[in-house]
Design brief:
- The longest helix has 22 residues, at 175-196.
- The chain is built from twelve helices and 19 strands.
- Helix 7 (144-152) runs parallel beside helix 8.
- Helices cover 30% and strands 24% of the residues.
- Helix 4 (66-74) links the parallel strand 3 (60-63) and strand 4.
- It binds pyridoxal-5'-phosphate.
- Pyridoxal-5'-phosphate binds at residues 36, 38, 84, 165, 206-207, 222-226.
């Protein structure tokens, strides 16, 4: 992999292609595939990832918010885009940019119908979300008549899909709960279909759902984290390749004598002479303060160098005692050589959080475009 001269997130699109093909091998050939590219494509780069997924032939893309979808349309992405968490303030823009809303409440449905009518839309695609236990967004059984009655005669919109989201798809201890959610979704989507007179496309599974509940693929699956190379369980991680590798370089090396301290608030105090390296990456780049005081580490020339003391805004200092290294050498935070999941393990968080935390200040480089 190429050498870097500054903090860089290297995105390997051949890994994305590999992950896409692996996930496809886990679903039926006729099942559609939605690629989730919310939050800057899990902290990488929305447009780069979406363009590659479009080229690979995904059926749908999803973002969380309307501005993320606008970015994709501005870049010429033509694939249908589902907006998972639309807000009323963005409905007009949404229609102007052909972004398809998740309709999750009576209020959202009423307001969207109004805007669709004002803008003289005909059969504008909408997606109905059912809450089957996550208790985040979605309609319940009691709302089915309301939805059907509102949408049946109305020609301004058309329900193109119904969907739901599992609360614990990666946790096999919650298997019974997940199966209940799947059953409940089946019931709700069938009931709505019966009242509407047609059955819209159905989808429920995220990445871990694809792995653990193959029987619930319905017409489409929605994968995010798997595309980026993480499977929430070791056997699946072994099949996937991290797309993003975060690297930086050593700016300066110091010898720290006994009783000297490193960084703000003197959070690290040396009890023997050690060697520290200062790296140009800090909490403003996404390395949160929870990685300080040895909870996080970087790899330098294949060796683990724990973070010394507090993470600064723009820098961290790491312990390179006993590591053969020089100023200008590369330091790897996570990626192909050590997964983001491993980087986060002792800081009590998950791959999703560190990936999406990498800030826009960090340079992006694309390999194998
Ligand atoms: C983020 C999200 C996904 C993707 O989940 P992964 O675990 O990253 O595969 C799927 N569906 C919904 C509703 C989401 O919010």
């Amino acid at each position: 992999m190429s050498k870097v001269g500054e903090t860089t997130l290297v995105m390997d699109l051949s890994a994305l292609e590999h992950n896409y093909r692996y996930l496809q091998s886990r679903i039926k050939p006729e099942t559609k595939f939605l690629g989730v590219v919310k939050a800057f494509a899990y902290g990488s780069d929305t447009v780069t990832i979406a363009q590659k997924l479009e080229q690979l032939g995904v059926d749908y893309l999803a973002v969380a918010y309307v501005n993320e979808g606008v970015l994709l349309r501005d870049a010429g992405i033509k694939t249908p885009i589902l907006v998972l968490h639309p807000l009323v303030a963005n409905f007009e823009e949404m229609i102007e940019r052909c972004l398809e809303p998740n309709i999750y409440s009576k209020n959202i449905l009423n307001q969207f119908l109004e805007v669709a009518q004002e803008k003289k839309q005909s059969e504008y695609p909408i997606h109905i979300k059912f809450n089957t236990g996550l208790n985040r967004l979605g309609f319940t059984e009691n709302d089915i008549d309301f939805i059907a009655q509102k949408c049946k005669q109305n020609k301004n919109v058309k329900i193109v899909s119904t969907f739901s989201h599992l609360a614990a798809s990666e946790d096999l201890k919650e298997r019974d709960f997940s199966l209940k959610q799947i059953n409940s979704f089946k019931k709700l989507s069938t009931a709505l279909g019966n009242t509407l007179g047609y059955v819209p496309m159905r989808h429920m599974l995220n990445t871990s759902g694809i792995i653990n509940y193959p029987e619930a693929q319905f017409d489409m699956v929605r994968s995010g984290i798997g595309l980026y190379g993480y499977g929430n369980q070791a056997e699946i991680d072994a099949q996937l390749k991290p797309v993003a590798t975060l690297k930086t370089i050593i700016s300066q090396i110091h010898e720290i004598g006994t009783n000297q301290s490193v960084g703000y608030n003197r959070a690290f105090k040396a009890t023997k002479t050690i060697k520290s390296a200062t790296l140009p990456i800090g909490h403003a780049d996404g390395i949160g303060r929870q990685y300080g005081k040895g909870k996080g580490s970087v790899l330098i020339n294949g060796k683990k160098a724990p973070i010394l003391g507090n993470v600064c805004m723009d820098m961290i200092m790491v312990d390179v005692t006993g590591i053969d290294c020089q100023e200008g050498d590369e330091a790897i935070i996570f990626g192909s050589e050590r997964s983001a999941e491993k980087f986060t393990a002792s800081a009590n968080t998950i791959s999703y959080e560190i990936l999406t935390a990498i800030s826009q200040r960090v340079k992006r480089v694309v390999l194998n475009q």
